[in-house]
Backbone:
């Protein structure tokens, strides 16, 4: 299981659990709305943090892939040059 799927599942589970818990609590409508508003702000902040973490990890992966791609291109160019000029080996 990838870390991104785990984090997404964890966030969704937390959201659903929080909403269900607030809705089933024996409180007035106003108190429930206040709690829902507070939870929604909290969830939004956590979602933004999660997106930032995922984006940071994705940026690192893209940089690594780009470096490996550049290295592969360089090696392929060396092989092609050796095939064109076998006497320089």
Residues:
């Amino acid at each position: 299981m990838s870390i991104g799927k785990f984090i997404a599942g964890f966030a969704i589970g937390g959201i659903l659990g929080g909403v269900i818990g607030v809705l089933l609590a024996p409180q007035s409508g106003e108190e429930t709305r206040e709690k829902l508003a507070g939870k929604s702000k909290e969830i939004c902040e956590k979602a933004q943090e999660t997106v930032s973490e995922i984006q940071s990890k994705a940026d690192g992966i893209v940089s690594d892939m780009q470096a490996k791609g550049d290295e592969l291109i360089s090696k392929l160019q060396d092989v092609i040059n050796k095939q064109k000029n076998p006497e320089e080996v």
About this structure: The chain has a mean pLDDT of 82. The first helix runs from residue 3 to 24. The chain is about 90% helix and 0% strand.
